[in-house]
Amino acid sequence: MLVRPGKEKEFSKFFHETAIPLMKRTKGVVQVLPGAARSGSPREFSIVMIWDSLESLKAFVGEDYESPHIDPAEAELVEARSIKHYDLVEL
């Protein structure tokens, strides 16, 4: 996610207090790996979610799971968002 300039602190609060806890308690989410902004890229945040199945992901976001979904609470904070899906590889 790329946060709008000047909204870094506000988004960080939303990210830590709302988004991460929400995703951790979402049915079908096995693991949440949040990435906070760093000094060299203070507007960039990321979140990796491991789901138990594609069906669980679709139940949460709908059939259009390949498009980024922005919560109304964060819409004015986020400038851009991208999403990618991968299949896990067994080690």
UniProtKB/TrEMBL annotation:
InterPro entries: Dimeric_a/b-barrel
Protein name as it appears in the record: Antibiotic biosynthesis monooxygenase
Organism name: Ruegeria conchae
Top-level taxonomic group: Bacteria
